[in-house]
Input
Amino acid sequence: MSLMSDIIAKAKARRMRIALPEGSDERTLRAARILTDGQIAEIILLGQPDKLNAQAKTLGFTLDGIEIVEPVTSAAYETYVDEYVQLRQHKGMTRKEALEVMKDTVFFAAMMVRNGIAHGAVSGAANTTAHVMRAGIQCVGVAEGFKTVSSFFMMILPEFRGEHHVPYFFADAALVPNPDASQLADIAIATADNWKALVGTDPNVAMLSFSTKGSATHPDVDKVIEATQLIHARRPDLNVDGELQFDAAVIPSIGERKSPGSPVAGHANVLIFPDLDAGNIAYKITQRFGKAEAIGPFVQGLNRSFNDLSRGCSTEDIVNTVAVAAVISQAQA
Output
């Protein structure tokens, strides 16, 4: 069974409530039908019921069994407006402004997640990443113990070291341009926890660098070393080591030679890159040259699962992202 199939099976075993704010988007409507029929998640569509039902009918299906919420007619609308004013009063938010903000389905969905009405939300098919992340940070909030909202990719290699469909998690490859040591520690801890939730095995976390155990000296290496020390202090339960070069992290013979006795070298499955340049380039090289499947990015570091999509996403992308959001929500519940 592939990792994605396994994640969908986990989602089905304990169905979570996932809000889809972009109900008027055709891809979202189709995904809602697939997710509901497949019993992958309990879907809450946001939008005007009459319009969404009519749109679905023209596409050849119904929205039977799917809850539809229109923000301005919802019983929670005024409550969310008042709560949002409280959350943003330090920024000068007025009730008049909040009334307009809560008409936005992405922000309304974020408040649903904040209040536990939905376990998570997935949007971005019709909204920018900046807009989705603004709603997530302002309404859902950053997770306790974290200061950094980041992302990870699930990379599925077709073959590696004689095994097929081999998963690795890459972070951060989408959001944080130049993390400091504390942010890098946040990224590593969040990614490790998501590996455990989604894959089910223990994460082996490699803090990557152009140096392995002092083979080079540079402030960039010092940052990775400091981040590794911070992780050991915060989460001594995690199997993490650094600084490690990529080959030392994933090739047993090289890991043994360059970092003998390391608990991670040669066996890493979670790869933490020192900055966004390295992470983004690495995932694209792995995808294009290595023919790997790149699934994501998935947002992490928020109080609850609140994910962003590419505006070029497919219906299948939405289905897969909802399944991942559901399984992460299971771990958070």
Notes: Residues 63 and 141 are 31 Å apart (CA to CA). The chain has 13 helices and eleven strands.
